[in-house]
Design goal:
Low-confidence stretches: none
Structural class: alpha/beta
Mean pLDDT: 84
Shape: elongated
Radius of gyration: 29 Å
Distance between the termini: 42 Å
CATH topology of the largest domain: Alpha-lytic protease prodomain-like
CATH architecture of the largest domain: Up-down Bundle
Number of strands: 6
Amino acid sequence: MTALLLKLFASKGEDTSSPEVRHAYGALSGGVGILCNLLLFASKIAAGILTASVSVVADAFNNLSDAASSIITIIGFKLANKPADSEHPYGHGRYEYISGFIISLLIMLMALELFKSSAVKIIHPEAPEFSAVSVCILVVSIAVKFWLAKFNKRLGNKINSSALLATSADSRNDCIVTLAVLISILMGSLYNINIDGFAGLVVAVFVFKAGIDAASDTLRPLLGQAPDPEFVKAIEEEVLKEKRIRGIHDMHIHDYGPGRLLVSLHAEIPADMNIMEAHDAIDGAEERIKRKYNCEISIHMDPIETDNKNINRIRKQVGDALYSISPELGFHDFRMTDGPDRTNIIFDLEIPFGFEGDDGDIKARAEQAVRALNDKYYPVIEVDKVIK
């Protein structure tokens, strides 16, 4: 079924980072979600009224909120597909994240209303009436939601969309929620135990948790989360395939929405290399990465001395000294300036995020370690926080 739907409604190519392809997948997910959830809402609201079950009614409105979420998903993907303009030169891809956040707020608001109605039902209990039709509707609902979870997970994995993966997780949670409602009806019918209000509370808690999870997934990229370590490593390896580039540092990855990444980094090249040759090496690395990862990239050239034996010897001494403080420390942009009274040892000290200790104290220890190498050495150190 999923393969058929993809063929009919999302056959716009295999470039899943393309805004057009992502829009097609988002529209397909939203359309299927609206249809399924509206059908489930209509059947469950009828069953809830028939049996006077607050948990069934709560589950019905949960499906209604899911349908509203699907509408917002479609709008979000459509807005994200808008081309760049003078006011938004990097495109509108973050609309996908914003739409996901709006969905999460609606989910949490619905959960609070369900919690309130379920609490009233616990204080003023009314035994729900058993109905074979209602039971059948709930069983079918579990099957439909299970399929929706797999459907959205497949689409989400295919285009690497946190919004669709969150929708998949929400459908999976709905299976558990509806199962709790079904159990409450069967308990009331078979053992005359009224847990309808409590089942409604379970529904509310699961819905609220789904809202929090969805909010977290969409807020992280908006706030500027750390890039995928595998992507960072892949970019580094691709740049270093150019043998004339000796190392890289200061990589920054800006996320302007799925498929809209801007990468910048510094590439170290031999200081004695011809400027035209160096420019050619940088341009070649940029073009390969643009083609392979469909992202924008800007590489800054940092000249380093590679054939000076004295600088290489002192660079190694500094590296060993920092390693003795911690193997996690690193450095880059190593330079030396000789004067009559002192030699400036200049570099950026790489301290990983989460590294134990105060940055100022670590810098002071690094300065002390450099001075210990030679009384004439004067360390000039800048701290650079890095992801490792």
